[in-house]
Amino acid sequence: MVLEGKKILLGVTGGIAAYKAVEIASRLRKKGAEVHVVMTREAARFVTPLTFREITGQPVSLDMWEEPAHWNVEHIALARMADVCLIAPATANIIAKAAAGIADDMLTTTLLAVKAPIFFAPAMNSAMYENPVTQENMAKLQARGWHKIEPATGHLACGGSGVGRLPEPADIVREMEETQARGKTLAGKKVLVTAGGTLEAIDPVRFIGNRSSGKMGYAVAQEAAQRGAEVVLVAGGTVALADPPGIRVLHTESALAMREAVLQEAADAAVVIKAAAVADYRPKERAKQKIKKNDAELTLVLEKNPDILMELGARKRETQILVGFAAETQNLLAYAQEKLKKKNLDLIVANDVTCPDAGFNTETNLVKIIGRDGSIKELPLLSKQKVAKTILDAIESLQK
Ligand SMILES: Cc1cc2nc3c(=O)[nH]c(=O)nc-3n(C[C@H](O)[C@H](O)[C@H](O)COP(=O)(O)O)c2cc1C
What we know:
Blueprint: E1 7-12, H1 18-30, E2 34-39, H2 43-46, H3 49-56, H4 74-81, E3 84-90, H5 92-100, H6 106-113, E4 118-122, H7 126-130, H8 132-143, E5 147-148, E6 152-155, E7 161-165, H9 169-182, E8 190-195, E9 200-201, E10 207-208, H10 215-226, E11 230-235, E12 248-251, H11 255-266, E13 271-274, E14 281-283, E15 302-304, H12 308-315, E16 321-328, H13 332-342, E17 347-352, E18 364-365, E19 367-371, E20 376-378, E21 382-383, H14 384-399
Parallel strand pairs: 1-2, 1-3, 3-4, 4-5, 8-11, 8-13, 11-12, 13-16, 16-17
Antiparallel strand pairs: 6-7, 9-10, 14-15, 17-19, 18-21, 19-20
The protein binds flavin mononucleotide (FMN).
């Protein structure tokens, strides 16, 4: 319904998945949208403009210098006309050009003038996708408010498998609809998220740590920011991810340092989501100098760290929502339900870290979201971004 009567600018770029854009155009049209396609020269090598013209019933723009179809200055007219813009597939090249503000063809010039929301669906070989320069360029676009549609993982046209596949057209259209319908639902709310594992120092060079990468917490923070929240992200010492754009990131190392940052920031937060894997114990003594090896056994005495989640639960204001995570290797449901009660949580996200492709340092997660009211929502194996969306949907429904 949200796309009905909307004028959608569909940018198609020169990737092998360009053929899927035909189905996207068709689906958007069936939703009642008016679809205007702008193609790059390279895209036209994969699919002809004629195909899009027939599917959309509208002229297709390709060249800035040819006779305009409707308007005098076509790229400006197209940009003004658009209610929503989608670039699918988005090549590494268009992402780089848009990030740099280059305007050397019809699509890039139009994009520079667009004021409507812009969605982009990166699709490319996984090495191109994971290249830090592509990651930086995508982060720049997201910082400017562009909505990234996460690529799928699986078989790639270049052979092999990995991240970088264009998601199915139906999923792309659904994500656009959901985002458009949702709007800035968390505007004016402060959301505090913790992510990653803590590092507990043994001596100046050694520590006790865990395998948490922080990816789940970062995905939650980014989703909350997309929904308009003021997000503060407290990262633990194991995190090696780039700071997400538009989010205040506080880097900490140990559980004690994380506790200090979290308690300070939680006081005025509407929502606190504790995705960090905080060490339960720390070495009692931290050696001032590097411990030297000798023939004797080394015994480390560990003392308990404070339970940050428990403290947050005890201090929780009536209107504040507190969400915990439970990563377990056995008795998942029982442990998670017990933790929810004991720590006064509103929701707990439970994941069995023994499952392949789920838990620490993976791109996907397999979780159950358990509510204070006893509800259990079991999700299939999903990308951490999709899990993050579901967690925030659950939080928003509690706020209603
Ligand atoms: C057969 C073939 C497939 C390609 N597939 C992709 C792709 O999936 N993603 C991508 O970023 N680039 C891909 N490229 C490279 C782009 O076509 C190239 O970077 C081009 O300059 C993109 O131009 P555009 O962004 O203006 O459309 C492919 C090239 C060829 C020859």
